[in-house]
Amino acid sequence: MDSRPRLFLTTAFLCGVLLTLGFKDFYPDLERRFRRTRRRAPANSLAGAGLDPRAQIELEDHTTGDHRDASKDVEVAEGIEACVGNTPLFRIKSLSDETGCDILGKAELLNGAGGSPKDRVALNMIKTAEEEGLLTPHSGDTIYEGTVGSTGISLATMCRARGYLAHICMPSDQATEKSDLLLKLGAIVDRVPPAPIIDPMHFVNRARNLAADHTADPSRPGRGYFADQFENPANWQAHFEGTGPEIYQQCGKKLDAFVAGAGTGGTIAGVARFLKPHLPALAIILADPQGSGLFNRVKYGVMFDTLEKEGTRRRSQVDTIIEGIGINRVTANFEAGRELIDDAIKVTDEEALAMARWLAEKDGMFVGSSSSALLQ
After folding, report:
1. Contacts of 285 (CB under 8 A, 6+ apart)
2. Shortest CA distance to 323 belongs to which of 265, 357, 368?
3. Distance between CA atoms of 223 and 221, rounded to whole angstroms?
4. Beta 188-192 vs 165-171: how paired, if at all?
5. Which of 198, 165, 197 lies closest to 182 in space, CA to CA?
6. Coil, helix or strand for 226?
7. What angle do CA 320, 366, 285 make, to 5 degrees?
8. How many C-beta neighbours within 10 Å does residue 231 have?
């Protein structure tokens, strides 16, 4: 019994030696078969995919020529003038949800010069004057304008961009932030006391006279050009050619009403002249601040407001804190579209201020009273 374990161990050892010797002779042949199998696998895969394993593969360069990324060919805008227009239309959520209809606003603050619709007007007036030979860039020509602020800011910016000087006349009762910005843009600013349009010192008349004096003075370089935004047809034409078509396309050619205020009247006239032929049922509505006569001009054909009667006027221009819209005289730009205006509404200062607060709180829109008045 004691010799059996030794016999088993001896036998197992001998078997292990024999197995090792046998595998050593067999392993090289097994390895060669495995390598041949691996070399055949890619060919079999190509054949399975319907490709000829013997075909030569050619690599193509897609980084040059017609194969380059088309996004790299995007056109770069030329100057700040190219950033004017094509502003987006957006849904004002709070008012739309409250009323049950889509109320849209046009983000004219995204115009690239002065951040207002007056950028369109300023650019078009300058371009038109250049085409007519009334302005020459970098010649010392100066553009004069009477404005309550927004047009002046747009003109001052455009003058810098196109090689002109700007001289702005504005009423002294307008926000000082406007004149401060004009000065920073390099414009000369005259703040004059509010006065009737028949007064030579009315801000518009003063700008006109200064332009004439400049042109008549041989000692001064360049010429003086009076932009005349209230009477210049390039004003309403800017909106006829730009704002109106943009709104029409952005609304999908479907619109029930268009509401605008009026100072010069160029915006509402130009947009109305474009939209009405395309949308005959469209309602064009004027929002007019208290103290302005345009409401009565639309409703009754006369230019008069009860706040303008003797002994009741608190301010010399328009009896409202709303800046930028409202006027008490007939202008060529407003008359260009007056017959297309279907109705007018009167907006009080309190209503405009309440709407401005609402928009800031509900929609994060920080707008001035002239914009909030349109949404009341």
Report:
1. 257, 258, 259, 260, 341, 342, 343, 344, 345
2. 368
3. 7
4. parallel
5. 165
6. strand
7. 55
8. 14
C-alpha–C-alpha distance, residues 19 and 284, integer Å: 103
List CB contacts of 114: < 8 A, sequence separation 6 or more: 122, 150, 153, 154, 156, 157
The 10 Å CB-count burial string (b at 16+, else e) for 21-58 is eeeeeeeeeeeeeeeeeeeeeeeeeeeeeeeeeeeeee
What are 293's two structure tokens?
């006569």
Tell which residue, 325, 316, 317, 331, has the closest CA to residue 349: 325
Measured in degrees and rounded to the nearest 5, phi and psi for residue 286 equal -95, 130
Query: What is the residue-level pLDDT of the chain in tens, covering all 376 positions?
Result: 456 666 666 666 666 655 565 555 555 665 666 566 656 555 455 455 555 656 666 666 665 655 555 556 778 889 999 999 999 999 999 999 999 999 999 999 999 999 999 999 999 999 999 999 999 999 999 999 999 878 999 999 999 999 999 999 999 988 899 999 999 999 999 999 988 888 999 999 999 999 999 999 999 999 999 999 999 999 999 999 999 999 999 999 999 999 999 999 999 999 999 999 999 999 999 999 998 999 999 999 988 766 655 444 444 445 688 888 999 889 999 999 999 999 999 999 999 999 999 999 999 999 999 999 999 8
Is the whole-model pTM more than 0.90?
no
Nearest CA to 229 among 154, 293, 176, 285? 154
Radius of gyration of the chain (CA): 38
Positive or negative: CA dihedral 330, 332, 333, 337: positive
Residue 138, both tokens: 């970098």
List, by residue number, the catalytic residues: 118
Residue 243 CA: distances (Å) to CA of 66, 70, 270, 302: 37, 30, 8, 28
